[in-house]
């Protein structure tokens, strides 16, 4: 039996940040970080952007720390290792190599995986789902070999990957059930502007098409839609959403359809067990209610907060404005605030879409809820973030 003061399950952004948070306040506690991937913890953000567009981009550049850092910090990093069992009552975990770990405190940071659509043919060859470094490497190589790709979906990852691949020699088509790109978040005019920009860059768009299935014997040949259309495709990236990795806590109170519930200190109802990153369902101290955020900044900050709180030497309430930065062609785009509360938002434009420099504020009544900025300086992004906080946090 291995004994550890802290066990961190999942070696992604949240997991490595938990370790950093612990080490800020506890230099000696025994820490184990377990991840089922082959790579030292890295950021996924470049995988749908520069990693695909830049042939010289080195995947090593996305790692948070060199291997020596984990040794220096005395963090027992176990790569290629799955936590197969997690016993909440006894504070025991079983690793895929058969070892058992007894821990004092643990943080679950198991993240998400790509959603597979419920249609025929999703396991055919040359259909790629993008989450890991391995997926991104395969996508980049296959796109170079095939010379063309169909991207299915129109969320962040689909749209970013379509843009990045288009800047290479690859022919890119994009198929989505939506009438415009990012229309789930943006107002109709901004989404239409973005959609036209993709056309201008030579991306073939198949809009308002519902996926019906993938065809091929062993390898993808066609993509069928519910409208009865059949599009030839030898390679597809399917990016239609993500689902949480919560199997480890299935049938426990730490699993809910909306995520793992935590309090404002990121601790679950089970004392000593925390959750951070894509899986954490946390009280939203800015917009109210509870929220789950599957963005990088949230995973990073929650990891740091959870790690610090786990040591018992610091007790910080998690307080965070949702934000996401994207890159498409020559655009840097910032999303701030609450796009998804269901109620209609009133857009107010400042600047010019044609000149690719603008900010849209989204209001409900006269209250600022969210903002979208295109090629605007960092100080303006920060000022709008402050405005959003000020509009919602009293005192
Ligand atoms: C291609 C791509 C691009 C993105 N770009 C952006 C961006 O530009 N901006 C942004 O804000 N967000 C972006 N995101 C989202 C962001 O990367 C995630 O929100 C973030 O990675 C979440 O971190 P996490 O640590 O919670 O989960 P993950 O990064 O998913 O890490 C969890 C890790 O735990 C492992 N794991 C799961 N179960 C077990 C187990 N039982 N045992 C051991 N290991 C386990 C998983 O395999 C994984 O390695 C992007 C995501 C992707 C996929």
Question: Overview of this structure, please?
Answer:
With about 400 residues, the chain is α/β, with parallel strands linked by helices. The protein folds into three domains: about 180 residues, 3-Layer(bba) Sandwich (FAD/NAD(P)-binding domain); about 120 residues, FAD/NAD(P)-binding domain, CATH 3.50.50.60; about 60 residues, Enolase-like, domain 1 (2-Layer Sandwich), CATH 3.30.390. It contains eight helices and 25 strands. Strands 1, 2, 3, 4, 5, 6 and 18 form a seven-stranded mixed β-sheet that branches. Strands 8-15-9-10-11 form a five-stranded parallel β-sheet, covered by helices on one side. The model has no long low-confidence stretch (mean pLDDT about 95). Bound molecules: flavin-adenine dinucleotide (FAD).
Q: Regarding quaternary structure, how should these chains be classified?
A: single chain
Number of strands: 25
* Strand residue percentage: 25-35%
Count of separate structural domains = 3
CATH fold node name of the largest domain: FAD/NAD(P)-binding domain
CATH class of the largest domain, named Alpha Beta
Number of helices: 8
Secondary structure: helix percent: 10-25%
Q: What structural category arises from helix and sheet content?
A: alpha/beta
Tell me the overall shape. globular
Please tell me the CATH architecture of the largest domain by its name.
3-Layer(bba) Sandwich
Instruction: List the ions, cofactors and other small molecules found in this model.
Output: flavin-adenine dinucleotide
Ends apart, CA distance between termini: 50 Å
CATH superfamily of the largest domain: FAD/NAD(P)-binding domain
User: Gyration radius, to the nearest Å?
Assistant: 22 Å
Can you summarize the main beta sheet?
A: 7 strands, mixed
């Amino acid at each position: 039996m291995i004994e550890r003061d802290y066990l961190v399950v999942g070696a992604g952004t949240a997991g490595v940040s938990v370790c950093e948070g612990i080490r800020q306040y506890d230099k000696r506690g025994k820490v184990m970080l377990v991840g089922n991937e082959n790579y030292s913890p890295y950021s996924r953000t470049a995988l749908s952007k520069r990693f695909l567009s830049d042939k010289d981009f080195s995947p090593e550049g996305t790692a948070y720390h060199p291997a020596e850092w984990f040794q220096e910090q005395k963090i027992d990093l176990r790569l290629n290792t799955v936590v197969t069992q997690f016993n909440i009552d006894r504070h025991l975990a079983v690793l895929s190599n058969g070892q058992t770990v007894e821990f004092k405190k643990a943080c679950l940071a198991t993240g998400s995986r790509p959603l597979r659509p419920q249609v025929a043919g999703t396991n055919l060859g040359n259909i790629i789902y993008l989450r890991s470094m391995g997926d991104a490497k395969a996508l980049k190589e296959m796109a170079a070999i095939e010379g063309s790709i169909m991207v299915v979906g129109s969320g962040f990852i689909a749209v970013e990957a379509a843009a990045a691949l288009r800047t290479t020699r690859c022919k890119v088509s994009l198929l989505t059930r939506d009438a415009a790109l990012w229309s789930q978040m943006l107002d109709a005019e901004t989404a239409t502007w973005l959609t036209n920009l993709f056309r201008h860059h030579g991306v073939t768009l198949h809009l308002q098409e519902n996926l019906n299935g993938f065809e091929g014997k062993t390898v993808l040949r066609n993509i069928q839609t519910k409208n009865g259309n059949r599009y030839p495709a030898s390679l597809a990236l399917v990016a239609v959403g993500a689902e949480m990795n919560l199997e480890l806590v299935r049938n426990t109170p730490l699993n809910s359809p909306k995520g793992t519930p935590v309090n404002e200190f990121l601790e679950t109802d089970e004392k000593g067990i925390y959750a951070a990153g894509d899986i954490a369902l946390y009280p939203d101290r800015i917009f109210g209610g509870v929220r789950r955020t599957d963005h990088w900044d949230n995973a990073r900050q929650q990891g740091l907060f959870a790690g610090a709180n786990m040591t018992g030497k610091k007790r910080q309430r998690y307080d965070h404005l949702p934000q996401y930065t994207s890159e498409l062609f020559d655009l840097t785009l910032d999303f701030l605030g609450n796009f998804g509360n269901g109620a209609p938002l009133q857009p107010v434009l400042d600047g010019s879409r044609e000149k690719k420099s603008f900010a849209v504020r989204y209001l409900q009544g006269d209250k600022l809820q969210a903002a979208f900025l295109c090629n605007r300086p960092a100080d303006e992004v920060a000022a709008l973030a402050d405005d959003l906080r000020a509009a919602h946090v009293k005192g």
